[in-house]
Structure prediction request, 460 residues.
Amino acid sequence: MVINHKSYSAIKLGVKKALVINNWEMAKECFTTNDIVVSSRPKLVAVEHMSYNQAMFRLGPCGPYWQKARKMTISEILSSHRVKQLRHIFESGSIKELFTFWCSNKNECGYALVELKQWFSHLIFNIVLQMVLGKRYFSLGTVDDEKAGRCVKAVKEFMRLFGVFTVGDAVPWLRWFDFGGHEKAMKETAKEMDSLVSEWLEEHRQNKALGGKVDGVQDFMDVMISMLDGQTSNGFDADTMTKSTVLSIILAATDTISTTLTWAMCLILRNPNVLEKIKEELHIVGKEKWLSENDITKLIYLQATVKETLRLYPPAPLSAPHEFTEDCTINGYNVTKGTRLITNLWKIHTDEYVWSDPLEFKPEKFLTTHKDIDLRGHHFELLPFGAGRRICPGISFSLQVVHLTLASFLHYFEIINPSTEPPDMSETFGLTNTKTTPLDVVFKPCLSPNCYESNEEVFT
Ligand code: HEM
Prediction:
Protein backbone atom coordinates (compact mmCIF):
# COMPACT_ATOMS: atom_id res chain seq x y z
CA MET A 1 0.00 0.00 0.00
CA VAL A 2 1.40 3.43 -0.90
CA ILE A 3 -0.19 6.79 -0.10
CA ASN A 4 1.57 9.25 -2.34
CA HIS A 5 2.11 12.89 -1.50
CA LYS A 6 4.68 15.13 -3.04
CA SER A 7 6.75 15.39 0.12
CA TYR A 8 6.51 11.89 1.52
CA SER A 9 5.10 8.40 1.11
CA ALA A 10 3.63 6.36 3.91
CA ILE A 11 4.23 2.74 3.08
CA LYS A 12 3.67 -0.57 4.77
CA LEU A 13 6.45 -3.12 4.72
CA GLY A 14 4.34 -6.13 5.69
CA VAL A 15 3.16 -5.37 9.21
CA LYS A 16 5.67 -2.53 9.68
CA LYS A 17 4.85 1.09 8.89
CA ALA A 18 7.44 3.30 7.24
CA LEU A 19 7.53 6.97 6.37
CA VAL A 20 9.61 7.84 3.32
CA ILE A 21 10.55 11.50 3.11
CA ASN A 22 11.29 13.04 -0.25
CA ASN A 23 11.85 16.77 0.26
CA TRP A 24 14.00 19.09 2.35
CA GLU A 25 11.12 20.62 4.32
CA MET A 26 10.13 17.21 5.71
CA ALA A 27 13.79 16.37 6.39
CA LYS A 28 14.16 19.62 8.29
CA GLU A 29 11.09 18.90 10.38
CA CYS A 30 12.34 15.41 11.21
CA PHE A 31 15.95 16.30 12.03
CA THR A 32 15.35 19.52 14.00
CA THR A 33 12.13 19.77 16.04
CA ASN A 34 11.54 16.00 16.05
CA ASP A 35 15.15 14.86 16.05
CA ILE A 36 15.00 13.27 19.47
CA VAL A 37 12.07 11.01 18.57
CA VAL A 38 13.40 9.95 15.15
CA SER A 39 16.90 9.03 16.26
CA SER A 40 16.57 5.37 17.09
CA ARG A 41 17.40 2.51 14.71
CA PRO A 42 15.08 -0.37 13.82
CA LYS A 43 16.24 -3.78 14.97
CA LEU A 44 16.29 -5.35 11.52
CA VAL A 45 17.14 -9.01 11.03
CA ALA A 46 20.51 -7.95 9.53
CA VAL A 47 21.20 -5.82 12.61
CA GLU A 48 20.39 -8.69 14.93
CA HIS A 49 22.82 -11.05 13.20
CA MET A 50 25.61 -8.73 12.09
CA SER A 51 26.00 -6.03 14.76
CA TYR A 52 26.75 -8.03 17.93
CA ASN A 53 23.12 -7.47 18.82
CA GLN A 54 23.39 -3.67 18.41
CA ALA A 55 26.75 -3.30 20.14
CA MET A 56 27.81 -1.62 16.86
CA PHE A 57 26.75 1.83 17.96
CA ARG A 58 25.86 3.01 14.45
CA LEU A 59 23.15 0.36 14.27
CA GLY A 60 21.85 0.61 17.83
CA PRO A 61 19.45 2.96 19.64
CA CYS A 62 20.49 6.33 21.13
CA GLY A 63 21.47 6.28 24.80
CA PRO A 64 24.55 6.41 27.04
CA TYR A 65 26.26 3.47 25.28
CA TRP A 66 25.80 5.02 21.82
CA GLN A 67 27.00 8.37 23.16
CA LYS A 68 30.15 6.88 24.69
CA ALA A 69 31.12 4.85 21.59
CA ARG A 70 30.41 7.79 19.26
CA LYS A 71 32.48 10.15 21.42
CA MET A 72 35.43 7.75 21.48
CA THR A 73 35.28 7.41 17.71
CA ILE A 74 35.21 11.13 17.14
CA SER A 75 37.98 11.98 19.58
CA GLU A 76 40.33 9.15 18.61
CA ILE A 77 39.86 8.27 14.98
CA LEU A 78 38.90 11.62 13.66
CA SER A 79 41.42 13.68 15.66
CA SER A 80 43.80 15.95 13.75
CA HIS A 81 46.67 13.69 14.85
CA ARG A 82 45.13 10.72 13.03
CA VAL A 83 44.28 12.83 10.01
CA LYS A 84 47.96 13.86 9.80
CA GLN A 85 48.93 10.21 9.98
CA LEU A 86 46.59 9.44 7.13
CA ARG A 87 48.27 11.98 4.87
CA HIS A 88 51.57 10.28 5.36
CA ILE A 89 50.15 6.85 4.53
CA PHE A 90 48.44 8.30 1.53
CA GLU A 91 51.24 10.24 -0.10
CA SER A 92 54.19 8.00 0.64
CA GLY A 93 52.20 4.90 -0.25
CA SER A 94 49.79 5.51 -3.02
CA ILE A 95 51.34 8.09 -5.33
CA LYS A 96 54.77 6.53 -5.22
CA GLU A 97 53.23 3.12 -5.76
CA LEU A 98 51.22 4.28 -8.76
CA PHE A 99 54.39 5.80 -10.23
CA THR A 100 56.28 2.52 -9.72
CA PHE A 101 53.40 0.61 -11.30
CA TRP A 102 53.51 2.97 -14.29
CA CYS A 103 57.29 2.48 -14.67
CA SER A 104 56.90 -1.26 -15.11
CA ASN A 105 53.62 -1.30 -17.07
CA LYS A 106 53.78 1.62 -19.51
CA ASN A 107 53.25 0.98 -23.21
CA GLU A 108 55.22 2.41 -26.13
CA CYS A 109 53.19 5.66 -25.94
CA GLY A 110 54.15 6.08 -22.28
CA TYR A 111 50.74 5.21 -20.78
CA ALA A 112 49.75 2.46 -18.33
CA LEU A 113 46.28 1.11 -17.68
CA VAL A 114 44.82 1.00 -14.15
CA GLU A 115 41.41 -0.14 -12.91
CA LEU A 116 40.42 2.69 -10.61
CA LYS A 117 37.44 1.16 -8.80
CA GLN A 118 39.72 -1.46 -7.29
CA TRP A 119 42.62 0.94 -6.78
CA PHE A 120 40.40 3.34 -4.81
CA SER A 121 38.98 0.47 -2.80
CA HIS A 122 42.45 -0.83 -1.83
CA LEU A 123 43.74 2.66 -1.13
CA ILE A 124 40.89 3.42 1.27
CA PHE A 125 41.16 0.02 2.94
CA ASN A 126 44.85 0.72 3.53
CA ILE A 127 44.15 4.13 5.03
CA VAL A 128 41.34 2.91 7.29
CA LEU A 129 43.04 -0.33 8.38
CA GLN A 130 46.23 1.57 9.14
CA MET A 131 44.40 3.97 11.42
CA VAL A 132 42.22 1.41 13.10
CA LEU A 133 44.56 -1.59 13.28
CA GLY A 134 48.00 -0.27 12.36
CA LYS A 135 48.04 -2.42 9.23
CA ARG A 136 48.62 -1.82 5.56
CA TYR A 137 47.56 -4.74 3.43
CA PHE A 138 47.34 -3.86 -0.21
CA SER A 139 49.69 -2.87 -2.95
CA LEU A 140 48.59 -2.13 -6.48
CA GLY A 141 46.86 -5.04 -8.13
CA THR A 142 47.62 -7.45 -5.27
CA VAL A 143 46.38 -8.32 -1.83
CA ASP A 144 49.40 -8.79 0.43
CA ASP A 145 47.66 -10.78 3.07
CA GLU A 146 45.10 -13.52 3.14
CA LYS A 147 43.26 -11.80 6.01
CA ALA A 148 42.88 -8.60 4.02
CA GLY A 149 41.25 -10.47 1.16
CA ARG A 150 38.82 -12.04 3.63
CA CYS A 151 38.10 -8.64 5.15
CA VAL A 152 37.26 -7.03 1.78
CA LYS A 153 35.01 -9.96 0.90
CA ALA A 154 33.22 -9.84 4.27
CA VAL A 155 32.66 -6.06 4.03
CA LYS A 156 31.19 -6.44 0.53
CA GLU A 157 28.89 -9.21 1.72
CA PHE A 158 27.84 -7.17 4.75
CA MET A 159 26.89 -4.22 2.50
CA ARG A 160 25.00 -6.49 0.13
CA LEU A 161 23.06 -8.20 2.89
CA PHE A 162 21.99 -4.87 4.35
CA GLY A 163 20.51 -3.98 0.99
CA VAL A 164 18.48 -7.16 0.44
CA PHE A 165 14.82 -7.41 1.37
CA THR A 166 14.48 -9.90 4.23
CA VAL A 167 10.97 -11.27 4.66
CA GLY A 168 11.45 -11.49 8.45
CA ASP A 169 11.67 -7.67 8.65
CA ALA A 170 8.21 -7.27 7.14
CA VAL A 171 6.34 -10.35 8.32
CA PRO A 172 8.08 -11.68 11.46
CA TRP A 173 6.14 -14.96 11.59
CA LEU A 174 7.44 -15.92 8.13
CA ARG A 175 10.98 -15.36 9.29
CA TRP A 176 11.77 -18.97 10.06
CA PHE A 177 11.34 -19.97 6.41
CA ASP A 178 14.34 -17.77 5.56
CA PHE A 179 13.26 -17.28 1.93
CA GLY A 180 16.34 -16.65 -0.21
CA GLY A 181 18.66 -17.91 2.52
CA HIS A 182 19.57 -14.36 3.56
CA GLU A 183 19.61 -15.06 7.29
CA LYS A 184 21.91 -18.01 6.79
CA ALA A 185 24.27 -15.79 4.77
CA MET A 186 24.10 -13.11 7.48
CA LYS A 187 25.09 -15.57 10.19
CA GLU A 188 28.03 -16.77 8.08
CA THR A 189 29.19 -13.23 7.37
CA ALA A 190 28.94 -12.27 11.05
CA LYS A 191 30.96 -15.34 11.98
CA GLU A 192 33.65 -14.52 9.43
CA MET A 193 33.90 -10.90 10.58
CA ASP A 194 34.06 -11.92 14.21
CA SER A 195 36.79 -14.43 13.48
CA LEU A 196 38.87 -11.74 11.71
CA VAL A 197 38.44 -9.08 14.36
CA SER A 198 39.06 -11.58 17.19
CA GLU A 199 42.41 -12.48 15.61
CA TRP A 200 43.31 -8.79 15.38
CA LEU A 201 42.31 -8.27 18.99
CA GLU A 202 44.47 -11.18 20.11
CA GLU A 203 47.45 -9.83 18.13
CA HIS A 204 47.04 -6.41 19.75
CA ARG A 205 46.86 -7.93 23.22
CA GLN A 206 50.03 -9.92 22.60
CA ASN A 207 51.84 -6.81 21.35
CA LYS A 208 50.74 -4.94 24.43
CA ALA A 209 51.97 -7.75 26.70
CA LEU A 210 55.35 -7.60 24.95
CA GLY A 211 55.66 -3.88 25.71
CA GLY A 212 53.83 -2.29 22.75
CA LYS A 213 54.92 -1.51 19.22
CA VAL A 214 58.48 -0.58 18.31
CA ASP A 215 57.45 2.79 16.82
CA GLY A 216 55.24 3.53 19.86
CA VAL A 217 52.34 4.62 17.62
CA GLN A 218 48.99 3.52 19.01
CA ASP A 219 46.22 2.60 16.60
CA PHE A 220 42.52 2.82 17.42
CA MET A 221 42.30 -0.77 18.67
CA ASP A 222 45.25 -0.17 21.06
CA VAL A 223 43.50 2.90 22.43
CA MET A 224 40.20 1.07 22.90
CA ILE A 225 41.86 -1.84 24.69
CA SER A 226 43.52 0.55 27.15
CA MET A 227 40.45 2.73 27.65
CA LEU A 228 37.94 -0.07 28.14
CA ASP A 229 40.12 -2.43 30.16
CA GLY A 230 37.67 -4.75 32.00
CA GLN A 231 34.68 -2.39 31.71
CA THR A 232 31.15 -3.37 30.78
CA SER A 233 28.55 -1.04 29.35
CA ASN A 234 24.93 -1.71 28.43
CA GLY A 235 25.56 -5.40 29.09
CA PHE A 236 28.44 -5.54 26.58
CA ASP A 237 31.90 -6.58 27.79
CA ALA A 238 35.10 -4.74 26.79
CA ASP A 239 35.98 -7.20 24.00
CA THR A 240 32.54 -6.94 22.40
CA MET A 241 32.69 -3.14 22.56
CA THR A 242 36.17 -3.05 21.04
CA LYS A 243 35.40 -5.51 18.26
CA SER A 244 32.05 -3.95 17.35
CA THR A 245 33.37 -0.38 17.34
CA VAL A 246 36.39 -1.30 15.22
CA LEU A 247 34.14 -3.10 12.74
CA SER A 248 31.69 -0.17 12.77
CA ILE A 249 34.43 2.15 11.58
CA ILE A 250 35.75 -0.24 8.93
CA LEU A 251 32.24 -0.81 7.57
CA ALA A 252 31.20 2.84 7.67
CA ALA A 253 34.37 4.29 6.20
CA THR A 254 35.62 2.04 3.42
CA ASP A 255 32.84 1.54 0.87
CA THR A 256 31.40 5.05 1.25
CA ILE A 257 34.66 6.85 0.47
CA SER A 258 35.80 4.58 -2.35
CA THR A 259 32.32 4.74 -3.93
CA THR A 260 32.43 8.55 -3.82
CA LEU A 261 35.85 8.57 -5.49
CA THR A 262 34.75 6.16 -8.20
CA TRP A 263 31.62 8.16 -9.10
CA ALA A 264 33.58 11.42 -9.01
CA MET A 265 36.12 10.06 -11.52
CA CYS A 266 33.33 8.70 -13.75
CA LEU A 267 31.60 12.07 -13.78
CA ILE A 268 34.85 13.93 -14.41
CA LEU A 269 35.70 11.63 -17.33
CA ARG A 270 32.20 12.05 -18.76
CA ASN A 271 32.58 15.83 -18.56
CA PRO A 272 35.94 16.83 -20.14
CA ASN A 273 35.24 20.52 -19.45
CA VAL A 274 35.19 19.73 -15.71
CA LEU A 275 38.50 17.87 -15.98
CA GLU A 276 39.99 20.84 -17.79
CA LYS A 277 38.84 23.27 -15.10
CA ILE A 278 40.23 21.09 -12.30
CA LYS A 279 43.57 20.83 -14.10
CA GLU A 280 43.64 24.57 -14.58
CA GLU A 281 42.93 25.14 -10.90
CA LEU A 282 45.73 22.72 -9.96
CA HIS A 283 48.25 25.17 -11.46
CA ILE A 284 48.08 26.86 -8.03
CA VAL A 285 50.09 23.93 -6.65
CA GLY A 286 52.96 24.31 -9.09
CA LYS A 287 54.77 21.62 -11.04
CA GLU A 288 57.63 20.97 -8.67
CA LYS A 289 56.08 20.29 -5.30
CA TRP A 290 53.88 17.97 -3.27
CA LEU A 291 50.32 18.97 -2.58
CA SER A 292 49.85 20.45 0.87
CA GLU A 293 46.78 20.79 3.05
CA ASN A 294 46.91 24.49 2.34
CA ASP A 295 46.62 23.83 -1.39
CA ILE A 296 43.45 21.79 -0.92
CA THR A 297 41.63 24.70 0.73
CA LYS A 298 42.32 26.78 -2.39
CA LEU A 299 40.94 24.17 -4.80
CA ILE A 300 37.39 25.45 -4.73
CA TYR A 301 36.33 24.06 -8.09
CA LEU A 302 37.52 20.60 -7.07
CA GLN A 303 35.55 20.90 -3.83
CA ALA A 304 32.46 21.93 -5.82
CA THR A 305 32.97 18.86 -8.04
CA VAL A 306 32.92 16.62 -4.97
CA LYS A 307 29.74 18.27 -3.66
CA GLU A 308 28.05 17.79 -7.02
CA THR A 309 29.13 14.13 -7.04
CA LEU A 310 27.64 13.61 -3.56
CA ARG A 311 24.43 15.33 -4.70
CA LEU A 312 23.90 13.04 -7.70
CA TYR A 313 25.50 9.89 -6.29
CA PRO A 314 25.09 9.92 -2.50
CA PRO A 315 26.86 6.69 -1.41
CA ALA A 316 23.90 5.85 0.85
CA PRO A 317 20.93 7.04 -1.28
CA LEU A 318 18.38 6.06 1.41
CA SER A 319 20.64 7.16 4.29
CA ALA A 320 20.47 4.80 7.29
CA PRO A 321 17.06 3.73 8.62
CA HIS A 322 15.70 5.50 11.70
CA GLU A 323 12.80 4.56 13.96
CA PHE A 324 10.29 6.76 15.80
CA THR A 325 10.36 6.18 19.56
CA GLU A 326 7.18 8.26 20.27
CA ASP A 327 3.97 9.19 18.47
CA CYS A 328 4.40 12.57 16.78
CA THR A 329 3.15 14.80 13.98
CA ILE A 330 5.26 15.47 10.89
CA ASN A 331 3.88 17.96 8.38
CA GLY A 332 0.39 17.40 9.80
CA TYR A 333 0.69 13.64 9.40
CA ASN A 334 0.32 11.52 12.54
CA VAL A 335 3.21 9.12 12.89
CA THR A 336 3.00 6.34 15.43
CA LYS A 337 5.77 5.05 17.64
CA GLY A 338 7.70 2.18 15.98
CA THR A 339 7.30 3.61 12.42
CA ARG A 340 10.50 3.47 10.39
CA LEU A 341 11.87 6.60 8.77
CA ILE A 342 13.50 6.32 5.36
CA THR A 343 15.17 9.48 4.08
CA ASN A 344 15.23 9.41 0.29
CA LEU A 345 18.40 11.45 -0.15
CA TRP A 346 18.55 10.96 -3.89
CA LYS A 347 15.03 12.40 -4.30
CA ILE A 348 15.84 15.36 -2.04
CA HIS A 349 19.07 16.01 -3.93
CA THR A 350 17.28 16.05 -7.30
CA ASP A 351 14.17 18.02 -6.29
CA GLU A 352 13.34 20.27 -9.25
CA TYR A 353 11.95 22.94 -6.89
CA VAL A 354 15.45 23.40 -5.47
CA TRP A 355 17.83 22.43 -8.26
CA SER A 356 17.49 23.58 -11.87
CA ASP A 357 18.42 20.83 -14.36
CA PRO A 358 18.50 18.49 -11.35
CA LEU A 359 20.01 15.53 -13.18
CA GLU A 360 22.79 17.48 -14.89
CA PHE A 361 26.33 17.42 -13.50
CA LYS A 362 27.27 21.08 -13.02
CA PRO A 363 29.74 21.76 -10.18
CA GLU A 364 29.56 25.52 -10.97
CA LYS A 365 26.29 25.81 -9.05
CA PHE A 366 28.25 25.46 -5.80
CA LEU A 367 30.30 28.51 -6.71
CA THR A 368 27.31 30.60 -7.78
CA THR A 369 23.60 29.97 -7.12
CA HIS A 370 24.16 27.39 -4.32
CA LYS A 371 27.50 28.56 -3.00
CA ASP A 372 26.41 28.77 0.64
CA ILE A 373 25.17 25.19 0.81
CA ASP A 374 27.49 22.94 2.83
CA LEU A 375 27.53 19.19 3.48
CA ARG A 376 27.34 19.26 7.25
CA GLY A 377 23.62 18.82 7.81
CA HIS A 378 22.79 22.54 8.07
CA HIS A 379 21.23 22.72 4.60
CA PHE A 380 18.51 20.14 4.24
CA GLU A 381 18.58 20.28 0.43
CA LEU A 382 21.90 18.42 0.46
CA LEU A 383 22.31 15.68 3.06
CA PRO A 384 24.73 12.97 1.84
CA PHE A 385 25.96 12.57 5.44
CA GLY A 386 22.51 12.85 7.05
CA ALA A 387 21.54 15.46 9.69
CA GLY A 388 20.59 15.72 13.36
CA ARG A 389 22.16 13.79 16.24
CA ARG A 390 22.79 10.72 14.06
CA ILE A 391 24.70 12.69 11.44
CA CYS A 392 27.78 10.92 10.12
CA PRO A 393 30.76 11.62 12.41
CA GLY A 394 33.18 10.99 9.53
CA ILE A 395 32.39 14.07 7.40
CA SER A 396 35.67 15.97 7.78
CA PHE A 397 37.72 12.82 7.50
CA SER A 398 35.87 11.71 4.34
CA LEU A 399 36.11 15.07 2.63
CA GLN A 400 39.78 15.32 3.44
CA VAL A 401 40.49 11.90 1.95
CA VAL A 402 38.33 12.48 -1.14
CA HIS A 403 39.80 15.94 -1.86
CA LEU A 404 43.36 14.77 -1.28
CA THR A 405 42.99 11.65 -3.42
CA LEU A 406 41.34 13.37 -6.37
CA ALA A 407 43.62 16.40 -6.25
CA SER A 408 46.75 14.23 -6.02
CA PHE A 409 45.72 11.81 -8.73
CA LEU A 410 44.89 14.63 -11.13
CA HIS A 411 47.91 16.73 -10.16
CA TYR A 412 50.54 14.02 -10.55
CA PHE A 413 49.08 12.19 -13.52
CA GLU A 414 47.57 12.85 -16.89
CA ILE A 415 44.54 10.61 -17.35
CA ILE A 416 42.57 9.49 -20.37
CA ASN A 417 39.49 7.35 -20.84
CA PRO A 418 40.78 4.41 -22.94
CA SER A 419 37.35 3.79 -24.49
CA THR A 420 35.46 5.73 -27.14
CA GLU A 421 32.37 5.35 -24.91
CA PRO A 422 31.97 7.45 -21.74
CA PRO A 423 32.28 5.47 -18.48
CA ASP A 424 29.33 3.23 -17.76
CA MET A 425 27.16 4.48 -14.88
CA SER A 426 25.19 1.35 -13.94
CA GLU A 427 24.72 0.98 -10.19
CA THR A 428 24.49 -1.98 -7.84
CA PHE A 429 22.31 -1.19 -4.91
CA GLY A 430 23.15 -2.37 -1.39
CA LEU A 431 23.79 -0.35 1.74
CA THR A 432 25.89 1.76 -0.64
CA ASN A 433 25.28 2.24 -4.36
CA THR A 434 28.43 1.03 -6.06
CA LYS A 435 29.42 1.14 -9.69
CA THR A 436 28.64 -2.22 -11.25
CA THR A 437 31.41 -2.34 -13.84
CA PRO A 438 35.16 -1.62 -13.56
CA LEU A 439 36.55 1.85 -14.27
CA ASP A 440 39.60 1.61 -16.52
CA VAL A 441 41.77 4.64 -17.21
CA VAL A 442 45.14 5.09 -18.83
CA PHE A 443 47.55 7.43 -17.12
CA LYS A 444 51.09 8.78 -17.19
CA PRO A 445 53.05 11.02 -14.81
CA CYS A 446 53.06 14.68 -15.73
CA LEU A 447 55.53 16.15 -13.20
CA SER A 448 59.29 15.77 -12.89
CA PRO A 449 60.39 12.32 -11.54
CA ASN A 450 61.66 13.67 -8.20
CA CYS A 451 58.07 14.71 -7.37
CA TYR A 452 57.15 11.03 -7.03
CA GLU A 453 59.59 10.36 -4.22
CA SER A 454 58.03 10.73 -0.75
CA ASN A 455 58.97 13.86 1.11
CA GLU A 456 58.74 13.30 4.86
CA GLU A 457 59.06 16.98 5.74
CA VAL A 458 55.75 17.86 4.20
CA PHE A 459 53.95 15.71 6.74
CA THR A 460 55.44 16.93 9.96
C1 HEM B 1 31.71 9.76 1.68
C2 HEM B 1 31.75 9.19 2.84
C3 HEM B 1 30.59 8.97 3.77
C4 HEM B 1 29.25 9.18 3.58
C5 HEM B 1 28.54 9.73 2.35
C6 HEM B 1 28.58 8.81 4.81
C7 HEM B 1 27.21 8.88 5.00
C8 HEM B 1 26.59 8.54 6.19
C9 HEM B 1 25.15 8.57 6.39
C10 HEM B 1 24.11 9.00 5.36
C11 HEM B 1 24.93 8.15 7.65
C12 HEM B 1 23.55 7.98 8.32
C13 HEM B 1 23.11 9.24 9.03
C14 HEM B 1 21.76 9.04 9.67
O1 HEM B 1 21.52 8.00 10.28
O2 HEM B 1 20.90 9.91 9.52
C15 HEM B 1 26.22 7.85 8.26
C16 HEM B 1 26.38 7.40 9.54
C17 HEM B 1 27.60 7.06 10.10
N1 HEM B 1 28.84 7.20 9.51
FE1 HEM B 1 29.20 7.88 7.68
N2 HEM B 1 29.53 8.37 5.72
C18 HEM B 1 30.76 8.46 5.13
C19 HEM B 1 31.99 8.16 5.70
C20 HEM B 1 32.19 7.78 7.01
C21 HEM B 1 33.47 7.60 7.65
C22 HEM B 1 34.81 7.84 6.99
C23 HEM B 1 33.23 7.19 8.95
C24 HEM B 1 34.19 6.87 10.07
C25 HEM B 1 35.43 7.10 10.13
C26 HEM B 1 31.80 7.13 9.10
C27 HEM B 1 31.16 6.74 10.25
C28 HEM B 1 29.79 6.76 10.41
C29 HEM B 1 29.14 6.32 11.63
C30 HEM B 1 29.84 5.76 12.88
C31 HEM B 1 27.75 6.53 11.45
C32 HEM B 1 26.63 6.26 12.43
C33 HEM B 1 26.44 7.47 13.32
C34 HEM B 1 25.40 7.21 14.42
O3 HEM B 1 24.56 6.33 14.27
O4 HEM B 1 25.45 7.93 15.41
N3 HEM B 1 31.19 7.50 7.92
N4 HEM B 1 27.22 8.10 7.35
Observations:
- The pocket of protoporphyrin IX containing FE is lined by residues 58, 70, 73, 77, 248-249, 252-253, 256-257, 260, 315-316, 319-320, 384-386, 390-394, 397-398 (CB under 6 Å).
- The mean pLDDT is 88.
- The two ends are 59 Å apart (CA to CA).
